[in-house]
Amino acid sequence: MPSAYDFPGGIYPPERKQRSSQATLIEAPLPSWVTLPLQQHSGQPATPCVARGDSVKVGSVIANREGMISSNLHASISGTVTEVTTAQITIEGDGLDEWFRLPSLDWRSAGRQELLERLNESGIVGLGGAGFPSHIKARVVERHAIDTLVINAAECEPYITADDLTLRHYPGEVIEGAQIIAKLCDAQHIVIGIEDNKPEAIEALQQALADSQPVPVELTVIPTRYPSGGERQLIKKLLDLNVPSGGLPADVGVLCHNPGTLLAIRHAVRDGQPLVSRIVTLTGEAIAQPGNRWVRLGTSVMELLEEAGVNHSALNQVIQGGPMMGKSLLTLDTPVTKLTNCLIAATLDELPPPPAEAPCIRCGECENVCPVALLPQQLHWYARAQDDTKLERYHLFDCIECGACSYVCPSHIPLVVDYREAKSRIRLQRIEATKAEHAKHRFEFRQARLAREEAEKQARKQARQAQQRRPSNTVTPSTSSDKVDLRGLRIAHAAAKASVKKAEKTLARVAQEDPKQSLDDLEMQLATAQENLKAAELQLAQAREEQSSEESP
Amino acid sequence: MSMMHAAGVNDAAKATNVPPTASLMRWVIIATLPGIATMSYFFGLGVISNVLLAAAFGVALEAAVLRLRRRPICVTLNDSSALLTGVLLGASLPPASPWWLIGVGMVAAIVVAKQLYGGLGHNPFNPAMVGYTLLLVSFPTYMTLWAPPQELIPDGLWAQIAGTLPTAQLDSLSGATPLDAFKHKGDAVLASEFWATSPLSEGTLNAWRWVGLAWLAGGVLLLAKRIISWHIPVAMVGSLVVLATLFYLSDPSHFASPLFHLLTGATLFGAFFIATDPVSAATSRRGKLLYGVGIGALLITIRTFGGYPDAVAFAVLLMNLCVPLLDLYSVPRPTGQPKATSGKPGERL
Q1: In this complex, do B20 and A367 lie within 8 Å of one another by their Cβ atoms?
Q2: What sign has the CA pseudo-torsion A521, A522, A527, A529?
Q3: By CB distance 3.0 to 4.6 Å, which of A131, A275, B47, B266 could disulfide with A125?
Q4: Which residues touch B222 (CB under 8 Å, ≥6 apart)?
Q5: Is residue A334 part of a domain?
Q6: Is residue A333 situated within a structural domain?
Q7: Nearest to residue B291, comparing CAs of B303, B279, B304?
Q8: Same domain as A521, residue A384
Q9: In this structure, what DSSP letter does residue A104 have?
Q10: Domain extent at residue A491
Q11: Distance, CA of B307 to CA of B24 (rounded, Å)
Q12: Which of A217, A263, A195, A261 is CA-nearest to residue A3?
């Protein structure tokens, strides 16, 4: 291996990219109707802003982003809105393909805010699979200094060639998109990581690199090995940096983008074209004309496969995504979304179901291929036993679910399925625990409020008594047992003051570290501490008053 | 989940992949053939009848227990693990051992050590070595008498069926293994004097060496086919040789040479076929190294200072006991996890 840096493990599954990489990139026919789900990105679903019967053009906003992590949604064909539900919007096309474009922006002269707003308006999300809104990702510089932008063109999963074709056809545009992001993030370097099984894309990039500026772009060709396209694995391979567990690439000054996303960013900025279509790989033995297509979002998978000549009698399953990490579609009556990078119409011979599961004999083959250096055999054991303490001790949450362990398992154990189940179970438990914790905090706040109100009442009463006492000038006899514990109250007051300070500090720190997180609970804790402080102040003042009134006569 | 499985991939890449569990077991059985063939060349057909008898017991007992446990019989038997346990135990016993001895050993191995713990994948102890140890402790006479080469047909086979010791009665020393003989040479006798008396019947030492090399050949086949990893055999043989060398250098007149330890007894058989049982061994690579080193150290310690001439079974079982501890302390650090966990666990540095 020529590379100086490496991640552990990895596998060499058959690539099967030839089938789709040979054909040229073409436009899929304009669909007569589209169904656009409101959630095609991570975070909150978008909120529809059109009603039934509205006529829309390609690029009209049909749903607005909702909340912090969300993304706009645009009509991908011109026509009439026929249905708006809580989950999706359906548009009937008029066949005219009329466009609504935003004005072109010169990114070299445009301001940061202007560019961010353009990404936001255009509904750009990560097209590699996670669908994280790009304008939020670009704002990471507000918290972390970014040194390097990595273009993740490894495309290590078998079958998929969407990035390959993107780079072969639009090398300059992708690099321009990278320059835009580099400008937004003040990145000093751009590094392209690409596997050596894409010679044409590498050549295209090398030619495009010549006149790329202002940020220097470096092309690094890495040996083909799954999963070198994993964000952490690629960063390790290219830059020899370890993204900390539970952290983001930004923690080590790196930002990762997929070529498709960068192309969409370039289109959004230069051409004012929002994200309404993407490149999708159509492949698999059950398809007569495999290849890559520009597909309008919302196009039915069924129509797309029909058009590519799917052989229904040979078809066994359709996989969305790659064969290692993708999902088998339950129904073909589903639209292409921003996240659909590949559709594999597989025959039974091509991707047979796994043989019957045998017991784990702890052969350790999974350990040899794990790219994170976990012990999959032990995780399997504890996942089946639901031993959550052990699972966390063995770092279950560092698992990237690449499926290398399942691939090599001689006992055909669906290890990744076990891990996903265990992860979602533990997450659910954590949410429950947080909820209980929050309920406790709300109760504490109520107690504190009541205590403060009681203290206020006492203070008023004392003031009244003092007023009554003065004219009559009668001294209430105080016994020693009645004597107020001034020292104790002073300590309580100081403690309350300290806890307010502590709550303020925690809130400030968390808000700074992770602005995405809901701060309600911490605000509540701060309010509780403040109520307690007020109550303590009142009690202390009252006690002092009493003492002085006792001493003065 | 991944739709691609190494077993389901019908490409050239398949050749480099690990075969499924059942064929893993079969490859181990195939790899025992050179050792078994060499043994039967030197010690007679009693070796082969041992192996066949033990394998038959293994399969029959496994089927019987599976039936009692109401588990699918054919599917489970198909993994060949019971067959393998039989072959390994059969190959460890003195040639033409009485049938009931083999039967008792296989009951301990398959029924007690394996199925009562939950079957394949769940046994904490190496089944064949549990059977062997039980026999060694309970029937020492039968277990320590190795008839000298080429004297077993037809008397030996007849003895096996009748369930008695081989009829050609031998004095205890001449029937002993080289390790046994050397162990009982007595402190007064120097090693050089001992060898000068030609204590073993002719060819015995040579026979054991050839058998050891045949096991080594099988082990190399397993390594080449990626059925076993190198960690355990290398660590075990390495620690054995290092410790034996230290002992030998300290007093060559009383301690056997490293080569003697390496090539006689069950060292190489144990290193490649017994200690490498993945189910009862430590699981991580680091754990496997520690596990191997532990077996090697225990082996030389028991051979030199313990009451038994050979100790592969004891060493393996003792290290099986340590596996949970080794597993606990040999968890590799995943990429991205901090190097040292100072302060609270999970806290990032």
Answers
A1: no
A2: positive
A3: A131
A4: B27, B28, B31, B228, B272, B276
A5: no
A6: no
A7: B279
A8: no
A9: P
A10: 423-469+479-551
A11: 36
A12: A195
Report residue A323: phi and psi, to 5°.
-75, -15
Phi, psi (rounded to 5 degrees) for A291: 155, -175
Query: CA-to-CA distance for B337 and B341, rounded, in angstroms?
Result: 9
Q: Distance, in angstroms, between B284 CA and closest chain A CA? A: 7
User: How far does Cα B116 stand from its chain's mean position?
Assistant: 21
The answer to whether A14 faces chain B, any CB pair under 8 Å, is yes
**B172 pLDDT exceeds 60?**
no
User: How large is the ipTM?
Assistant: 0.82
pLDDT in tens, B111-136: 999 999 999 989 999 999 999 999 99
User: What would the two tokens of residue A477 be?
Assistant: 């006899």
Any idea what the Cα angle at residue B71 is, between residues B66 and B75, rounded to 5°?
A: 90
Least confident segment among A76-80, B82-86, B283-287, B303-307: B303-307
Describe the crossing of helices A415-472 and A376-385 by its angle, rounded to 10 degrees: 60
Structure tokens, B116: 């009562």
Residues A454 and A408 in one domain: no
Q: How far is CA A40 from CA A102, A160, A231, in A?
A: 22, 20, 21
pLDDT digits (tens, 9 = 90+) for A256-315: 999 999 999 999 999 999 999 999 999 999 999 999 999 999 999 999 999 999 999 999
- DSSP label at residue A229: T
Interchain proximity A14–B336, CB inside 8 Å = no
**Measured between alpha carbons, how far apart are the two ends of chain B, in Å?**
33
Say what the pLDDT of residue B280 is: 94
Length of chain A as a residue count: 553
Interstrand relation of A55-56 and A26-27 (parallel, antiparallel or unpaired): unpaired
Task: Say whether both A254 and A384 belong to one domain.
Answer: no
Phi first, then psi: give them for residue A279, nearest 5 degrees: -90, 130
Instruction: Answer yes or no: do A398 and B22 touch at CB < 8 A.
Output: no
Of A364, A365, A373, Cβ closest to residue B334: A373
Q: B95: number of CA atoms within 13 Å, CB side?
A: 31
Residue whose structure tokens are 């770092």: A395
Contact call for residues A204 and A194 (beta carbons, < 8 A): no
Strand partners, A150: A191, A256
**A–B CB contacts, 8 A cutoff, strictly below:** 157
The whole-angstrom separation of Cα A365 and Cα B225 is: 13
Interface contact B334-A372, CB threshold 8 A: yes
Which chain A residues in 383-402 lie under 8 Å from chain B, judged by CB atoms?
393-395, 398
Q: Give the integer Cα–Cα distance in Å for A433 and A479.
A: 49
Q: Is residue B151 over pLDDT 90?
A: no
CB burial of residue B241 (10 Å; 0-12, 13-18, 19+): middle
Question: What tokens appear for A312 in the block?
Answer: 């229904």
Would you call the peptide bond into A14 cis, given omega within 30 degrees of 0 as the criterion?
A: no
Q: Which two tokens stand for residue B292?
A: 């191997």
Distances (CA, A) of A511 to A431, A436, A514: 20, 22, 6
Q: Which residues pair with A346 in a beta bridge?
A: A317
Which chain B residue has its CA at the smallest distance from A364's CA?
B283
Establish if B18 touches chain A: CB-CB under 8 angstroms.
yes
What is the domain count for chain A?
Answer: 3
CA geometry: angle B90, B93, B94, nearest 5 deg: 130
- Segment A524-533, tens digit of pLDDT: 888 888 888 8
Q: Output the six-digit token pair for B111.
A: 């029924």
Look up the CATH number of the domain holding residue A51.
3.40.50.11540
Both A439 and A397 in one domain: the answer is: no
CB atoms within 10 A of CB A85: 11
Is there a single domain that holds both residue A389 and residue A432? no
**Cα–Cα distance measured from residue A494 to residue A340, given in angstroms and rounded to the nearest whole number:** 58
A135 pLDDT more than 80:
yes
- Please tell me whether residues A44 and A128 are part of one structural domain: yes
- CB–CB of A514/A488 below 8 Å? no
